[in-house]
Amino acid sequence: MAALFQGRLVVRNDCVLAGDSGNLTLPIWREGFTAGGDEQERVVVRNAEGDIVAVEGEVFAMGGGYVAEFEPRDKVQPREAQLRQVADSTGITIPERCLGPGVYGVWWAGGDVQPTSA
Q: Is 103 helix (H, G, I), strand (E, B) or coil?
């Protein structure tokens, strides 16, 4: 869980993702993290202390690591098997709408999360 992910916060199908349109990642946030709106009607992610750590459309960084990777398909377990493992190990069932085209994998946010301008 010591890897670093850096990308934009993206909202698609009511799901909070990270990356760009062709290479998105679905973060699983640690307990206490919340997503909500700000005055400009952007989605913001707050940590357990209430600090804004990511803003829709802006680049942020988060530690952690992939718990599921869907590409390259010929070198990884089938997506359904990986998602079952994620659900079994985390207790979280990921809605199908959050895993559409362009989603590379699922990232467990296990380290610091912060705007890159911080």
A: strand
List the one residue out of 93, 73, 96, 104 whose CA is nearest residue 28: 93
- Which amino acid belongs to residue 33? F
CA angle centred on 33, ends 101 and 94, rounded to 5°: 35
The sheet with strand 34-37 has its strands ordered as: 34-37, 43-46, 52-55
Give the pLDDT of the chain (118 residues) as one tens digit per residue: 679 999 999 999 999 999 987 899 999 998 999 999 999 999 999 999 999 999 999 999 999 999 999 999 899 999 999 999 999 999 999 999 999 889 999 999 976 777 776 4
d(CA 49, CA 28): 18
Q: Output the pTM of the full model.
A: 0.89
